[in-house]
Every structure is written in C-alpha cells, then in structure tokens.
Amino acid sequence: MLNAILVMLGLALVIGAVLGWASLKFKVEGDPLVDKIDAILPQTQCGQCGHPGCKPYATAIANGEADINQCPPGGEEGIRKLADLLGREFKPLNAENGTEKPKSVAFIDENTCIGCTLCIQACPVDAISGAAKQMHTIIAPLCTGCELCLAPCPVDCITMEVVKETVDTWKWRYPVIPLKEQSAA
Predict the structure, then answer these.
(1) Element (H or E) spanning 162, and its range?
(2) For residue 52, what is the domain's CATH number?
(3) 46 is in an annotated binding site
(4) Do residues 100 and 93 touch, judged by C-beta distance below 8 A?
C-alpha cells in the first residue's frame, strides 16, 4: 500500500513538473498590436466608444471590428496616433460617441453627499472612497474623468473639475509607455 502511494506521489510530481515546464515554454502572451493600441488609449474605462473599457476597444480595433475614431477622451490626438500606428487614414471623432473635453476629475461636495454608494458602484477604477451613509471623496490621482459617477448620484453632489496642467499633471495627457517598450525604442 505504501509503495502504491509513493508511486502515485512520484507520478504526480513528474506530471506537475512537466505541466509547469510546458506553461513556461509555451506561455501565451497578449497580442502585441492590441497592447500598442491600448497604450495609446486614455485608460478612462468610460465606455463612450461602445466597449466596456480601453482594452476591449483596442482588441476590437486590432480585429477590424471598430473604427479608430470612437474615443472622445482620446480625442483628435489619440485618433492621429492610432492612424499612424495602424497605417489608416485619419477620421474626425465620431460625434455620436461624445465630444472631446479637457482632462478632468470628479469632485464630491461632501456637505451634500448622503453616502448612498451609487457612485462607488459606478466607478470603473475604484477612485471613490466612502461607506454607506458616510460621506464619500474622490481619490484624484486614480480618477480617470470618465464621468460614470455623475448619472447615478441622486443628489447631484458630483461635479467634474478641469485638471490644470502642471508639472505633476502633464503626464495625464499622454499614455504611459511600459519600460520594456522604452528600451526597445
């Protein structure tokens, strides 16, 4: 009985080692084109393009299922970068998806907030802090300006404040390029 258990344990170790090696050897990575497109998109996760976030929109563009001019937060600059990357003709922003606006972040009037948590549930990037029946606040560095918190607020205590360009905020206008891509450039 003990020998059978040892044989089974040995077999399990061998199979585990083979599967571990195979997972490293045949590692499937994301599509490099999707990653490049996603790096150009503004990462607001707002859904204005008709997709649930920037990565699904990038995937749709790469697969030829979406036009490059559907992202209001990315604006004309983003469309031009996508056109250059993909070798496509520039198209103006599709007005059906919204209009280009300056970078902004949400602001909660804490005196008016009733703590309903509807804004927390709507935020795709967890940029709102608070608890039920307590006032809420925006964690500004995490806020992408998607405006998804505005509609569910029953007391209209959330406004969008334009981000003034300073040394600390200038980078919000441009996508962050991962270090591995910077060294290759």
Answers:
(1) strand 158-162
(2) 1.10.15.40
(3) yes
(4) yes
Phi-psi region of 174 (alpha: psi -120 to 50; beta: other; left: phi over 0): beta
Same domain for 121 and 67 = no
Domain coverage including residue 46: 32-99
pLDDT digits (tens, 9 = 90+) for 50-69: 999 999 999 999 999 999 99
pTM: 0.69
Structure tokens at 126: 């967890």
Q: Please give the average per-residue pLDDT across 106-123, as a whole number.
A: 95
> What is the C-alpha end-to-end distance of the chain, expressed in Å?
61
Confirm whether residue 157 is marked as ligand binding.
no
71 is in an annotated binding site: yes
DSSP secondary structure letters along 62-84: HTTSS-TT--TTTHHHHHHHHHH
116 known ligand binder: yes
